[in-house]
Amino acid sequence: MTDKELLPGNLYQAITTVIQLARQHVKQVVNHQMVSTYWEIGRLIVEHEQQGQARAVYGKQQLQQLSKRLTDEFGKGFDARNLRNMRMFYQQNPIWNAVRSKLSWTHCNVLIRIENSSARMWYA
């Protein structure tokens, strides 16, 4: 915008546009980072705790203990069910670069419920 376009009414509009664009960008960055973090948690659970197996040998108790420790330190979002979702998300998407960058964790959580991989990719 030029200085001539920044008359009192236009100045307000220009500032609100900048704020709205910044907020939109922040939401996108947060969503992307959240999905990336949850994918990485799923990877760690599968690869380090399960040695690549579909399920850990130690059973549900270990996941419950992990959930409690994470929740105590980081708050909501790390219950055993969500950790299982993170694990499933990683198992269905083992290549990070193949994950759609514009999807939120809520979208990913819905998609992991679709058993047919072709249908899942279509909906993504």
Automatic annotation (TrEMBL):
InterPro entries for the chain: PD-DEXK-like_domain, YhcG_N
Source organism, top-level taxon: Bacteria
Domain YhcG N-terminal, first and last residues per copy: 15-124
Pfam families linked: DUF1016_N (PF17761)
Name of the protein in question: DUF1016 N-terminal domain-containing protein
Organism: Marinomonas phaeophyticola
